[in-house]
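Narrative of accomplishments. A recurring question from our advisory board has been how the design workflow behaves on a single, concrete structure rather than in aggregate. To address it, we present the structure tokens for one chain from the evaluation set, followed by the sequence designed for it. No filtering or post-editing was applied between the two.
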């Protein structure tokens, strides 16, 4: 069972109710989904005419990634 209370901006909080458990639907921009520490750093790779895959400036990618670790107070490891 779950406890639910509906909220509407024009009426405020509704009456609480106990109901069966069901899927929880949240908007993708819900603050709770973006409250944790997040990191994202893309790495570009290109396939050459010879078929080999080449990374585009991976050492700078690693440097940016490590700087994001320090900004977010995350433990850093030696990245190669």
């Amino acid at each position: 069972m779950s406890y639910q209370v509906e909220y509407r901006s024009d009426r405020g909080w509704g009456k609480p109710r106990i109901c069966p458990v069901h899927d929880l639907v949240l908007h993708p921009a819900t603050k709770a989904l973006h409250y944790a520490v997040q990191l994202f750093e893309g790495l570009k790779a290109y396939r050459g005419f010879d078929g080999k895959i080449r990374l585009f400036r991976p050492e700078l990618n690693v440097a940016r990634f490590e700087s994001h670790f320090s900004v977010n107070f995350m433990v850093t490891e030696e990245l190669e």
